[in-house]
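Q: Got one fold?
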Amino acid sequence: MNFSLPNTVNEQMVSFDEYREQKGVVVIFSCNHCPYVVAYEERMKALDRQYTPQGVPFIVISSNDISRYPQDAPEQMKVRARDKNFSFPYLFDETQAVARAFEAEKTPHAYLMKYVGGQWEFIYKGAIDDNWQDAKAVKRTYLSDCIEALLSEGAMPFKETPAVGCTIKWKLQGI
């Protein structure tokens, strides 16, 4: 499952296969306008700062239909990334092929991946944690618990949790 998408932060292409040598990679489907994403942005940035130096970088992807949601267009993504000081790549999936390949449903929808035996494996997919509204009230840190298990080569505490957020805004067919 390789993909190559434009990074709205620096206008360079990012290939998923560039990350094969990492201990793992977190892919989060996101966008600019979803209130769930907005609530999670600081946590996403903190997790990226914590785990990228340990060999688990973050890639954030917006796949929304920009004809119906222009606030999610690449130009607006670049502004958001700059204003929020994103350190991770913020990629645009114009064809929505990457979101479909991941079977992403929500924003945010998090995936922990690892390159094993010549292919990408899903290690975890779902929610970042158990409280999108209040970071201080989080009791279960699903994504970071799974990253910690990956780094320590321990048992994965979660394989999948329900993603919580806005639906991905799919392009309307036949219009």
